[in-house]
Amino acid sequence: MSEHDPAATSAPRITPEQRTGLLELGWNDALEADFLRLASPDTRPARVASVERGGFFVVEDAAAIDAPTLARLEGTELDSTAQPAVGDWVALIVREGTPGITEVLPRKSALLRRASGRQGRAQVVVCNLDYLFIVTAIGFNLNLSRLERYLIGSLAADIAPVIVINKIDRVHDRTEIDALINDLGIEVPVHFTCALEPGGIDQLKPYLTPGTSLALVGSSGVGKSTLANRILQTDRLATGEVRHTDDRGRHTTTRRELWRAPSGALIIDTPGMREFGLWDAREGVAKLFPEIHAATEACHFRDCAHVDEPGCGLLAALDDETIDEARYQRYLRALEELAETEALAAESTERLNARRERGKQNKLRTRKGSRRKHWDR
């Protein structure tokens, strides 16, 4: 990123009219300072509302959120995690009538997960959130492991998590649900909703304030799009039925999209995720298991695996029964997954660097061959 002198031009970079529209999209003083520092004088700020293979749909004013502008990414091809994602703020320029993105402003937060497959790549789910609504539902989907994964990702990204248990009208045992939530081991807001009933989302209203950005994540069939429709007071988002045998839903939401609710909140609906692989989330693990992380500070070896090493502070806490055995096992599984992911990422980086080096060598050979042909004439 190159820096620009905000005082280089006498005209204001952002007019009062532009600022009003941007504020309704979540703009703030910190973003404006970054924009003035990093973006060139001939650009203007915009927010990414959706991403497709053909480009990035951006909005500069909340009034135009239903008709975003298609923009292309200019300049050098960025790493996949550095490319614009839904929720990002960017610097937009128009050249000969064609909008282009020249800069991605620094992110307040970015929810990452491991991309599908064995490539060892990260995927940016959404950016610049205040809250992450982790949506689950009464039935097969209400699962401790799934909740922990989303919580780890959210906490690692420094996004405030909110657990939303939907379809509360179904038959359920509240005692079992309370026990599951208690097993999480940390204080997290939990709200029960029924998106199809009047007043069924009233518990979510305190989060739906003007300029607040939030995303709904979870498996297919838990009712994310129905909840989003209720928040947006519209039926624009497609919804579908779930299989009664296993509660699985079809992917009615096919892409991530940013919308503005009548309350002024910015809502991002996301496709259902079959899995949420952990990525760069050791800080999230430490926050979800704070008592375990604190016990590891007493370990004799810095690279202690907390399995059978001498002088392990965590094993000592287990012996003293100050650490719960089940939470200890889940903590280890999270660390093992992150170690595997980090190894795959290192292999992927090594292969990429090798391809780049081969490409450089091929270019050098091509240039040398061209020079020999020139002198042979």
From TrEMBL:
Residues 346-377 are annotated as: Disordered. Its EC number is 3.6.1.-. GTP binds at N166, K167, I168, D169, G218, S219, S220, G221, V222, G223, K224, S225, T226. It holds the Pfam family RsgA_GTPase. Keywords: Cytoplasm, GTP-binding, Hydrolase, Metal-binding, Nucleotide-binding, Ribosome biogenesis, RNA-binding, rRNA-binding, Zinc. CDD domains: YjeQ_EngC. Its cofactor is Zn(2+). It is found in: Cytoplasm. Residues 348-360 have a biased composition (Basic and acidic residues). Belongs to the TRAFAC class YlqF/YawG GTPase family. RsgA subfamily. This is Small ribosomal subunit biogenesis GTPase RsgA. It comes from Lujinxingia vulgaris. The lineage of its organism: Bacteria, Deltaproteobacteria, Bradymonadales, Lujinxingiaceae, Lujinxingia.
